Amino acid sequence: MAQEAQAWAEKFRKATESDPIIQSYAKYYTCDFLLDMEELRVGVQMRDGQVHNIEINPAPLEPHQFSLHAPAETWRKMSEKHPPPFFHGMWAASVREDLRIEGDITVLMQNLRNFTAQFELLRQTGVPV
Amino acid sequence: MAKISPVIGRYVTIEVDGLEYRVFWLENGDGPPLVCHHTAATHNHQWRHLLEDEDFTSRYRIIAYDMARHGKSDPPSNAEWWKEDYRLTADHFVNFVTAFCDALELDQPTFMGSSFSGCVALHLALRKAERFRAIIALQAAEYAPGWWLDWWRHPHTNAAQVCSSGVWDMMAPMSPDNERWLTLWYHMQGAEVLKGDLHFYSMDHDLRGRLGEIDTAECPLVMMTGSYDFLTPPEVTLATAEQVADCDFIEMKKLGHFPMSENYPLFKPYLTQALEIIERKAGA
Q1: For residue B155, what is the domain's CATH number?
Q2: Residue B192 lies in domain
Q3: Which of B41, B132, B159, B251 could staple B194 via S-S, CB 3.0–4.6 A?
């Protein structure tokens, strides 16, 4: 499981840094966020459009600015190539399903265009749960 | 040879509640007028495919305008609008649509609106049934609270990116990339007015308890919603349609909140179905 998660992290890093949509906007894309997938948590640190670090199951006090929380099954549905209705994005799943967005929403909004594109890369990389 | 579109654009000056607006519209086709209104914070390019579709322009005069403050239609020319916090109301919205139709001397137009203009379509059906041949309300509900948010116009964020990213999820993920990005692009251009538009959508628009007053015998009403629209899911629109006597409801599969713009080939058969219903009920 740990090895698989690390392999996924590397895949997600490469997908982010090679994604032309993100890189076309990403000059100031800098933030720290947590993806809580129930069975596993992923901490991501972005710096100027590059992945500074991805940590699987970061320590409880490891800081982040905003976080997304959902059951593993929700993450699996959101990462399908063609997700079912209301699992097709962060907003849709938080309004109609069981995704929760917490933390400093201002930071999320400041980075929203890039984060939205990066979130959709899960449809390419899948999720580690 | 140059590819010149048959669509033409013109301006008309109208007065609405004492405010003077120079309104831009696009049109093409011959026949009974079909007046099309864009969604919040965008403009008439959302109807670009319909405006050039000969299957419809051969039978209808398709008219798609930019609401005041959107696209090429400016804010009021006789008011210091820059000193006010723009907040659209149901009354002003209804009066704007009818003043525009009057200015163009449209006789019994069919009105088609989407999202916030789908909601005003319900107000038109309720208040102005005698003025319209039929109403098509896309992505509409009797009540749509919760979206009059400061995030749409916040000094610490990039409004264009926030507004456009906010609508990204409203489209079906399988809609073509180029069409989804154009739809997003239109929202980037209109970000400054989104909050004011949504004042109508989430605050002033509330038809709960009034839908039974809509007379579909005088003005047929068709409601349509995309299956991927998380803002107004099919069950929400259906719940509205069920309160209106003889209102037709169509769920549009694999479409989101911007069906005419995000995936026109999928939208076209649903629009055909809606217009067939109207032809049957309203007559030729």
Answers
A1: 3.40.50.1820
A2: 8-282
A3: B41
Q: Could you write out the DSSP letters of every residue in A14-56?
A: HHHHH-HHHHHHGGG--EEEEEE-SS-EEEEEEETTEEEEEEE
Determine, for residues B157 and A109 on separate chains, whether the beta-carbon distance falls below 8 Å.
yes
Evaluate whether residue B34 is within a structural domain: yes
**Total count of domains within chain B:** 1
Chain A residues within 8 angstroms (CB to CB) of chain B:
25, 82-83, 85-86, 88-92, 95-96, 105-106, 109-110, 112-113, 116, 123
B165 closest CB neighbour out of A96, A106, A113: A113
- Residue B197: phi, psi to the nearest 5? -60, -40
List per-block mean pLDDT (blocks of 10 residues) for chain B, which spans 284 residues: 96 98 98 98 98 98 98 98 97 98 98 98 98 98 96 94 91 97 95 96 98 97 98 97 98 98 98 98 78
With respect to residue B1, please indicate whether it lies within any of the assigned structural domains. Answer: no
Q: How far apart are CA B271 and CA A73, in angstroms?
A: 36
CATH number of the structural domain spanning residue A29: 3.30.1050.10
Nearest CB to B169; choose among A25, A88, A109: A88
Cβ pair B165:A110 closer than 8 A: no
- Which residues span the domain enclosing A109? 2-125
**How confident is the model over A73-100, as pLDDT tens digits?**
999 999 999 999 999 999 999 999 999 9
Distance between CA B195 and CA B142 in Å, rounded? 19
A85 with B164: Cβ contact below 8 A: no
